[in-house]
Amino acid sequence: MAKFKKHDILTGVLSKHRQGFGFVRCDEFEQDIFISAGSMKGAMNGDEVQVDLIPQYLWKESPEGIITKIVSRNTTEVVGTFQKNKKFGFVVPESRKSFDDVFVRRKDFSGAQRGDKVVVQITRYPDKYNSAEGRISEIISRCGQPGGDIKALARTYDMRETFPSRVNAEAKAMKKQGIREEDIKGRRDLRGLKIFTIDGADSKDFDDAVSISRLENGNYQLGVHIADVAHYVKEGGPLDKEALKRGTSVYLLDQVIPMLPKALSNDICSLNPGKDRLTLTVEMEVNENCEVVRHEIYESIIRSAERLVYDEISDLLEHNDKAVSEKYAHIKDELIMMNELAVKLRHKREERGSLDFDLDEASIVLNEMGIPERIELADRRSANKLIEEFMLLANETVAEHFYWMDIPFIYRVHEKPSTEKTEKLKIFLRSFGIVLRGSGDSIHPKAVSTVLNQVKGQQCENVVSSVTLRAMQKAYYSTLCDGHFGLSMKYYCHFTSPIRRYPDLMIHRIIKSVINDEMSVKALKRLRKKAEDAAEQSSIMERKAIEVEREVEKLKKAEYMSYHIGEEFDGIISGVTHFGIYVELENTIEGLIRIDELRDDYYDFHSEKYALIGRNTNKAYKLGDMIRIVVDDVNRERREINFIAADHQ
Fold first, then answer.
1. What is the CA angle 598-599-603, rounded to 5?
2. How far apart are CA 430 and CA 609, in angstroms?
3. CB-based burial of residue 608 (10 Å sphere; 0-12 exposed, 13-18 middle, 19+ buried)?
4. What digits encode the pLDDT tens for the residues 492-536?
5. Which string of DSSP letters, residue by residue, matches 343-394?
6. CA 638 to each of CA 17, 366, 607: distance values in angstroms, whole numbers, following the listed order
7. Looking at the predicted structure, is the pLDDT value of residue 434 above 80?
8. Among 20, 136, 196, 423, which is least packed by CB within 10 angstroms?
9. Is 342 within 8 Å of 384 (Cβ atoms)?
10. CA-based R_g, the chain, Å
11. First to last CA, the chain
12. 3-state helix, strand, coil in the chain (%, to 5)
């Protein structure tokens, strides 16, 4: 750890906990600095602050400090629930990271009623004696309005469903423009081919379509046709700037915060059946060994023959469903050929060590009031996997093609796990009698894949897969082609979803510039900077999208379990800590049994064994063990679910 003199000043960003304390992360200090509730000096979550370290001998576990100065306020508004009294009110923050309620005077209610989800603008920041004060600037939803809780949670991440007027105006103009004769010139006309989309039943935006045929030499000719969004989203225009700002579409159960307005995403750019659409096509000749022996990337125009649905096509592929076979008799041969190729591609990918974290995912079904009626396991079936394999192949082919062209590009990078995380994973796996081969600094994807295959179908599969996944690095976007560890690929990018991901849109622009011979020296220099900026912004927004998606899922899981308090369920111990054990139910809902609820003994935490062990009885609660629980309590606002062991009631 770095050494600091008594008067050294540390500056960092405060992350505050609901209970009042917090931590400050400083670039020049290795550990986060603990700040007690009484040492805040009125700082709010996200503020940049100066910290004075207290003497080391007073530290309990981590470094501790006192905030001496607020360098800059990074919170200008708070999203939350309005609690109203006659003469004043408070806004209780929606975010679990925010502790500070905001006081609102009666004159600043702006028509808000008790229980409304609102945005409050800060007019006075808190100090040692007074809470923050503000005025309500926006009513997100009225109390009890369906979907209001999800909208409010998204708004805490500054995510808005609506677009600025100039962005909508440009989108509507592009939709109205449609497809002109001049747009078709120079494109390959594929409207006579059997091309179709396969998506979820609720999907509205279709940005990828596929086609297949068998060549005379016995090889497959696979076509992946992607919506030419770059044709409509002009570089540097209002649409482009807003898309870059958003970085990605965000899917929050029954709500979508799109990257592009619906005039584009659900209309002129969407590959709707029976409609002419401009596309970028990757045509690949794939031999029996699943090698792409020839490929071509070009601008095209297609007309999708069908809008197919995953479950329906899976019924055909898995069970030869008679009704589906008759309905799609005109493309049945193509579907069977596609599945044949997809299975081969998947097998080859698994052979080289590509990781398949086949984790249980929740399917949360909401009723018309936004209340969760069912939470069950989502199913990745044959048709889902088929499209997945074709998109992976197209992304890899495009990435390798442009890597050898040596021009600015955006790659999808996934680094190998750190030595420290690999060693911790090895220790964890040993508790299950599993050996992870390879040294900490030279682990191969094949070794991790072997572990995942070893636990397939076993009781501990989900736990082992989850812990192994957490040991992996986070994937990100980069202008450097540093490979994808998880997929065991040297070249990889995201090309296939330009309606909902900005890197894909950027890649389309690069491809079109090359096709149309627009790559001057000046353009290359400008493009390099734009690609770097897009990669960084997209990585940031992707992480934010993942976080809000998880928070919404936790919110609805907590709400669902609030209707099941007192009921018993079987689960598996998915986490063990010094304060209790986490238990995951069959439907992926996770709750905590606090250590003080284990009343038959005094339990010690054994980190190396991933277990709580009783001092007197030697009874153990270990990771991966089955346990029967009772739902004890739920805090919907904090998204917390508490269980008790059924035999400890």
1. 60
2. 9
3. exposed
4. 999 999 999 999 999 999 999 999 887 777 878 888 899 999 999
5. HHHHHHHHHTT--------EEEEE-TTS-EEEEEE----HHHHHHHHHHHHH
6. 11, 20, 27
7. yes
8. 20
9. no
10. 27
11. 46
12. 35, 30, 40
Q: Which residues contact 140 (CB under 8 A, 6 or more apart)?
A: 79, 116, 117, 118, 119, 148, 151, 152, 155
Q: Which two tokens stand for residue 543?
A: 């992480």
Query: Mutual orientation of helices 382-405 and 502-515 as an angle, nearest 10°?
Result: 50
Is the distance from CB of 269 to CB of 262 less than 8 angstroms?
A: no
3-state DSSP assignment of residue 213: strand
- In the block, tokens 């309905």 appear at 327
Task: Name residue 52's beta-bridge partners.
Answer: 66
**Structural tokens at position 550:** 């998880």
Buried b (16+ CB within 10 A) or exposed e, 321-346: beebeeebeebbebbeebbebbebbb
Angstrom distance (rounded) from CA 40 to CA 234: 47
Q: Say if residues 498 and 229 touch (Cβ distance below 8 Å).
A: yes
Q: How many CB atoms lie within 10 A of CB 399?
A: 24
In the predicted model, is pLDDT for residue 130 greater than 90? no
Sheet holding 220-227, edge to edge: 188-189, 292-303, 276-286, 220-227, 208-214, 196-199, 306-309
Distance between CA 487 and CA 485 in Å, rounded? Answer: 6
- Rounded CA separation 348/410 (Å): 26
Render pLDDT for 192-243 as a digit per residue (tens, 0 to 9): 999 999 999 888 899 999 999 999 999 999 999 999 999 999 999 999 999 9
Q: CA 480, CA 473: separation in Å to the nearest integer?
A: 17
Q: Could you give the 3-state DSSP secondary structure of residue 120?
A: strand
Tell me which residue of 383, 301, 288, 293 sits closest to 344, measured CA to CA: 288
Sort 268 into a burial class: Cβ within 10 Å, 0-12 / 13-18 / 19+.
buried
Region of 417 (left: φ > 0; alpha: ψ -120 to 50; beta: rest) is beta
Distance CA 216, CA 220 (A): 9
Residue 221 CB burial class (10 angstroms; 0-12, 13-18, ≥19): middle
pTM metric for this prediction = 0.89
Classify 87 as helix, strand or coil. coil
How far lies 458's CA from each of 69, 512, 524, 625, in Å? 54, 48, 52, 12
Q: How far, in Å, CA of 649 to CA of 631, rounded?
A: 11
Measured CA to CA, the distance from residue 477 to residue 633 in angstroms comes to 41
CB 153 within 8 A of CB 553: no
pLDDT tens sequence across 166-196: 999 999 999 999 899 999 999 999 999 999 9
